Fold:
Amino acid sequence: MCGIFGIHGHAEAAHITYLGLYALQHRGQESAGICASNGREQLVHRGMGLVADVFSEATLAKLPGRHAIGHVRYSTAGESNLRNAQPFCATTDGGPVSIAHNGNLVNALAIRRELEGRGAIFSSTADSEVIVHLLARSREASPEERLIDALSRVKGAFSLAVLTDDALVAARDPWGFRPLVLGRLDGAFVVASESCALDLIGASVERELEPGEVIVIRRGRLRALRPFAKVPRQAFCIFEQIYFARPDSNLVRQNVYAFRKDLGRMLAREHPVEADMVVPVLDSGTAAALGYAEESGIPYETALIRNHYVRRTFIEPSHSIRHFGVKVKHNAVRSILEGKRVVLVEDSIVRGTTLLKLVTLVRQAGARAVHVRVSSPPTIGPCHYGIDTPSREELIAHQHSVEEIREAIGADTLGYLSLEGLRGTSARLKAGICDACFSDDYPVPPGDDEAAPQLSLFHAVEEGFSDDVRSPARRGPRE
Ligand code: SF4
Structure:
């Protein structure tokens, strides 16, 4: 998953983009980058690590211009290194172009092989670079027509912010997998992956881009296009609402926090249990736990404390460190839990390792019973559209029944939200959804790109980091 941001027509474009990326940090911690344009040239700064690590006053001062795009990344394929950090920038015969991409392309590998067979040289291993190559080779006249030409050839998930010499172009794939919102700030146009980025910079939220929509912002005017062929249905990633997005964001015109709370309510109706308290797995289980508590009438207690200075366990690089990370990250409050029957609410289970540790922690703190409730259905398949889930074989729900999982994590009872419950709660969203990792109903066939490398092009101002620097925050799958 990645976060993207773009602004057109603001005197402090790079600084505003920096702030926007700050708000989107949860969408990627491996690398960050900003490309700014002053109408004549584009300058980019990219580095490994968090936004605050990558940028300083000095680096931002080297990114002048009234237009900018930015990107925070974690890799869903390919390596975590500087060559794959975005924005990708290229000089084409139509002028400079920079691209920030959120999503995964399912036919990138096939296109890459085809282009390499015709002599193209790729400088990264990220899938997004195929867009740059296709755009550079297009015979269309304007940069936006070239981009549309390129995007017409790729399949899968893309939300994009693209900077040309004088325009900001934003696009969403026809399925609408990944979010992209449009705002205004002091007369400038802004696009961002989530509305929380617009809140931080004080921009108004105008609307979300529609699936398949391309907007072109040039000289203070916005032009909206619908250039792509229609697809059978929309497929907004429901995992954005369940787990990935920030709860203060509104996606597909639904507040994420409120949605998660409603999932918790539904979960309580589907899997009631006699208990003394509802305890969330912080932070993503919080809203669902509140919903469960309100619906069931069982008191809510924050009896598992999270150390916020440890990064998400699912960015850890190996099993041993992952287990270690769970212990470092959470502690149980014995004085609350002792002798109590606990409902532990989590948003999803991928491998089951985190929950095994947490259930053990809660028991060791004296809980009499631990009932686990999960505010999504069993995760039975991988994601091919931009969320870094492990292979099917590593998913505990692919391999095991609910009863076997309950036994594996050491819970007294285990209840998942049903697929019908998820779909029923999602019915109010102003979009069709993708729930393929829960249903195996993949909107776009994965193709042969499951092991696809990810792509990149050119660089300009890259200081203090070398290409072989690896991020300490290499983000692995959930758990
Ligand atoms: S497969 Fe799952 S994670 Fe991937 S886009 Fe669909 S709902 Fe989201």
